[in-house]
Please model this.
Amino acid sequence: MDTDEPDYFLFVGNIDSESATTKLRSSGVPYLKKLLSSKPENWDTIVAMITSPHCRGALVVLRRSDYEAMNQPEYEEPSRALLDALATRSHIILIHEAVFLTDEQRAANDAPLLEYEVEIDMNLRFSDEDRTFLESIGEDPFKTVSEATRTHVNAMLRDRRLNVIPYRTNVERSVIASGFLEDNERDLLFRFYVPSGRLYAQEAEDLLGMFREWLGQTGHSDIRQEGYSTAAGQVFEFFSGDGHSEGGLRRYFEDFSSFLRDCVATPSAAVVRLTANGITEDAATIIVSRYATRANRLSLDLKHRREERMLVLKHKLENVVLGIDGLAGRDLEAALDEMLPPPTTNGVLEGPKVNQSSSLTVNNFNPQFNNDVAGPIVQNIAGTINLGAEAKDLLALAATFGGSERTQLETAVHELEDEGARGAERVAARGRLKRFLADLGNRGLGVGLDVLQRYLEHKIGVS
Model:
């Protein structure tokens, strides 16, 4: 392709809605559109457009006809190439629930859930406008793909860990697409949510402030931090102005954590790190001294925060343990000490990893301890004490099966629960969690997921 070609954004499928194109036009970004309802050769052209260095991102809609094409022999290689190409670019793939979900999963979404009756927004049901819209893009809300086709294509999407979000109405699709375009235009690296009640939550902002300063001092000033606070928690966002990846930012944070340790333990090594980035030795010595002071202050704050939380938990649980045979007050204190994560910076951002496999006999063999003591401790230090049972179940599933997506899924749960979170992000969060539950069900892990699917369906409304 011409090296003088300007950067562009790519729409694949019937996704170039007025709201989406207006957002791109207002930011001055050219956009192109390609359709998958074409011969395999055209799919090769789409792959070349996605992999072009001028492509800033892709927004894709997969229809029932696209699923059926991807299951045909002549489209096998083009399909794999298309999905592999998307994995290398900022992207989102929107798929209607009638295509992505199984009949059982859709039935779970439609079933009533009395506990959330007051939260049901009837606009989530198909309107005449939605039916007209679906017919215009060749989708029948009452007709689904074959099970074999769905299983084949969904497995291809899942294996590549692509950013797939199912949607139900055109309004929901438009909201998710607009939110993605905004994040893409601002070069979002990652977003994560820290609940206000989480242990070490107050120290997270201090640590990130130090990290942001370090980035600037080591030649990465194009990475910027933003976010916002609600009554329930704080959202942290990192954006890039120079094509950094989320993985690259994580490596930067690992380097920063190592630098902090050097500032405290071996200042001369920390000075060498900075001079390697073009900072004079005198300036580097001053910077290292300042970081060492702040790191020691942060370590002390973490230690005090842990002691405060231990005392609060001890007082709350002393009455509970009186009814548990073999658990005296000193045993409770020892159990708390083993279960609470140590006061280090490693768990400040990812959340405290609670030690639930204490060597104490009472924890290993007393079920009443696990129900009445261990459970409340876990919820207290994770900041989930005020969440409902379904939200806690989703967090547990994310921790067990989320893998590299765990932080993103946990953020989605908290955003969905937080009515003060941004509306577009809550809608996308629900879709992301729906996809996660559907993937679990498709892997044979669907026991009890129907209740969580109904919970997600009725949690928020999109009008």
